[in-house]
Amino acid sequence: MPWKTMHLEETGTVEPVDDDPNAVQIIYDTPYAAKQHEDLTLHHPKPGTKAKYLEDPAMAIAPEIVPGIVDKLQDYFLTG
User: Fold this and answer.
1) Phi-psi region for residue 2, left (φ > 0), alpha (ψ -120 to 50) or beta?
2) What is the CA 3 to chain-centroid distance, rounded?
3) Which of 2, 18, 66, 72 has a CA 20 to 30 Å removed from the CA of 24?
């Protein structure tokens, strides 16, 4: 995230998921948000800043959240 302007952080929104009243999604939709996340060659000078800023934290808690995701998917596909 560009820390000099904080623009990307300020554009993050939390929105409800249309088909699940118990879920929300966090969206960063500036033109450069995906590039900041995916491009491993970009320079991230501040400690703790880097590409994959969303993926790595999700993967760190995956063992805790995957069972709930599996349950939701099974409910969705089995009960329609």
Assistant:
1) beta
2) 18
3) 2
